[in-house]
Write a structure and sequence with these properties.
The chain has about 190 residues and is an alpha/beta fold. It is built from 7 helices and 9 strands; from the N terminus they run βαβββαββαβαβααβα. The protein has a single domain, classed as P-loop containing nucleotide triphosphate hydrolases (Rossmann fold, 3-Layer(aba) Sandwich). Helix content is about 40%, strand content about 20%. It binds guanosine-5'-monophosphate.
């Protein structure tokens, strides 16, 4: 039997660029498997079922929780998100590295359930930069943007709970730093 693989969690505030970093890894480090989350959020036009997310309704999500099919789950910005347990367990048991890209509440659950998981926090270069990204094109109502900024401030305060911090000054540099952590080469 090989040694169990390493479980790495990438987290950080909304808008920091977690999904861009994971997209870069997918292209440049196909050897790093990352979990595909289940969500009740509607599919975006560019997303592929089973590749980006598994899209389910609220009843199915509740069933998955009830039947113990999720490693962790969280309610975030009006939708449910969760990590399917079985594929993660299988890969770790085979000694293969696993990457989860999840929000902060989920990262805390993983910390409790898998104490030796490596928790990595992706941080923006500055609050102003994050604010600029979260405001987007400025076409959304002021209260929606304000809620987003308030949530991001709370998420940013979680940095100290993480084992490693990567500043997202550029997607490729952040992704390479993450790859080194996931593969245990740093
Ligand atoms: P999005 O709606 O952009 O797919 O994701 C919104 C937030 O949910 C992001 O911060 C993302 O990291 C997080 N997220 C995605 N999948 C999961 C998951 O399986 N569990 C948890 N806890 N958060 C997730």
């Amino acid at each position: 039997m090989s040694d169990p693989g390493r479980l790495t969690v990438l987290s950080g505030p909304a808008g920091v660029g977690k999904s861009s970093v994971v997209a870069f890894l997918r292209e440049h480090h196909p050897e790093i498997w990352h979990s595909v989350s289940v969500t009740t959020r509607p599919r975006r036009p560019d997303e592929v079922e089973g590749v980006d997310r598994f899209f389910v309704d609220g009843d199915e999500f509740a069933r998955m929780i009830r039947d113990g099919e999720l490693l962790e789950h969280a309610h975030y910005a009006g939708n449910w998100y969760g990590t399917p347990l079985a594929p993660v367990t299988e890969r770790l048991a085979s000694g293969l590295p696993v990457l989860l890209e999840i929000e902060v509440q989920g990262a805390r659950q993983v910390r409790t359930l898998v104490p030796d998981a490596l928790l990595v926090f992706l941080k923006p270069p500055s609050w102003e930069e994050l604010e600029r990204r979260l405001r987007g094109r400025g076409t959304e109502p002021a209260d929606v943007i304000q809620r987003r900024l308030d949530t991001a401030r709370i998420e940013l305060a979680a940095e100290d709970e993480f084992d490693e911090v990567i500043v997202n000054t550029s997607v490729d540099a952040a992704a390479e730093a993450l790859a080194a952590l996931v593969l245990g080469t740093r």
